[in-house]
Design brief:
4 helices; two-stranded antiparallel sheet; alpha+beta; 78 residues; single chain
């Protein structure tokens, strides 16, 4: 069973946007198509498409730090 880390929950709440996580086994088809098999990945949804916000290399560079990931997401929103 997948459980969200407490530090991740706290950091993700600071984003100010809806942030939904999926495991590749339960992701919607449009998310799987946009990810193109590259995991982990952060996608942003607009009214017409899904775009890559952070790719797997960028995410892996954070070494599991939710704070680093959230900082990068704040930068991407600017």
């Amino acid at each position: 069973m997948f459980r969200k880390r407490a530090d991740w929950v706290q950091c993700s709440e600071s984003l100010g946007v809806v942030f939904t996580t999926y495991h590749r086994d339960d992701a919607p088809q449009d998310v799987l198509i946009a990810a193109k098999g590259n995991y982990p990945i952060v996608l942003g949804r607009s009214s017409s498409s899904l775009e890559v916000v952070l790719n797997s290399a960028q995410i892996e560079a954070f070494n599991g730090s939710p704070k680093s990931l959230i900082a990068a997401l704040h930068t991407a929103r600017e």
